[in-house]
Amino acid sequence: MSAPAQILGRRSLFLLPTRGGLFFGATLLALLLAAMNYGNGPAYGLTFLLATTAAFSGAVGQRNLLGLGLHETLPRADFTGSPVGFRVVVVNPDGRARYGLMLAAGAAHAAFDLGAHEQRTVEIPWPTGRRGRVAPPVLRLSSTYPFGLLRVRSRKLVLEEAALAYPRPAARAPLPAGQAEDEARAHERGREVVAGGDFVGLAPFRAGESPRHIHWKAAAAGRGLFVKRFAGPSDEEVWLALAPTGDLEGRLSILCRQVLDAERRGLRYGLRLGPLRLPPARGPWHREHCLERLALFDGDAS
Amino acid sequence: MRPSPGHALPATLLILMALACLPLAPFLPWWSTGLALTALAWRGFVVPRRGLPAQGVRWLLAIAVATIVFLRFHTVVGERPGLSFFVMLVGLKLLESDSARDQVVLVLFGYLALMGGLLFAPTPLMGLYTLGFAAASFVALSLITQPSGPAMRARWRLSVGLLAQALPVAFLGYLLFPRIAIGLWHSVPVPVGRTGLTSVLRPGSLEALLRSRQVALRALFQGPKPPKDRRYFRAYVLTATNGRTWRAGPLWHARGHSVGPASAPYTILLNPTGNSVMPALDWPARAPRGAELADGDLVRRAHPIEHVLRYTLTARPIRRARLGAHERAQDLALPRSLDPRIRALARRLASHRGPLARIHRTLGYFVRHHFTYTLTPPPMGRDPTAGFLFRARSGYCEDYASAFAILMRAEGVPARVVVGYFGGEFNPVGGDVIVREWDAHSWTEVFVRGRWRRIDPTAVVAPASLWHGGSAALGAHGAARAGRYAWWRFTRVHWGLWLDAATTAWDNWVVDYNARRQDALLRRLGWRHTGRAALAAAVVALALLVVAIVRASGARAPRRDPARRAYDAYARKLARVGLAPRPWEGPKDHLARASVARPDLEPLMSAITAAYVAARYDGRPEALKTLRTQLRAFRPRRSGLARLTRKP
Question: Is residue B195 scored above 60 in pLDDT?
Answer without folding.
Answer: no
